[in-house]
Amino acid sequence: IGVSFFYNLKRDIEFQTGLYFYQTGFMRTVSNIKFLDYIYPGEDRVFDQAFDKTAFFRYRFRYIHMPLMINYGLPFKDMNFQYNLYVTGGVGINYLVDSKIRADLEGFTMNGKSTLDFDSVGFDLNKVTMHGSIGVRFEYLMKNKIILSVQPLFNYNLTPASSSQLQMRPYSITAAVGVNYRFQKVKEEKK
Known about the structure:
Shape: elongated
Number of strands: 8
Low-confidence stretches: none
Number of helices: 0
Distance between the termini: 39 Å
Structural class: mainly beta
Strand content: over 45%
Largest sheet: 8 strands, antiparallel
């Protein structure tokens, strides 16, 4: 969820920026948990004596995201000039808003609970990170100033998300779908 701004640098090159709310995460499984093991830093030990114990951890990170992208227009155009295709690349600056973990326990409970929620992810997270992005953007001109756009991207963290020994460098595949409004009139090409 967010807002984008585009600025034409040249005929087929534009600069893209904006502000977005961005959520990402990953899952991790811990199997073969033994009696008196710790499943998470700062939590009690496992006192359940069942043999088959597994914990499924879901990590969630929420960011305010600002992309700094260059879009290069490819020469693909239809006869009515309603479609545009761009190659996109750049960086994104992310500011960490919050992080949480949920652990679903299978085969045992802790303090009578089979689901645990944590406010900390167990390691020091960097408040500001940067990732590189590459992808494409497809535009469809609906009316003179209104454009439907789809922008799938591959993102990879250039700076680690954590400052502890566990150096997390997450990657993601995202897709932004939106309706854009151009403040300048879209110029029709001469035939």
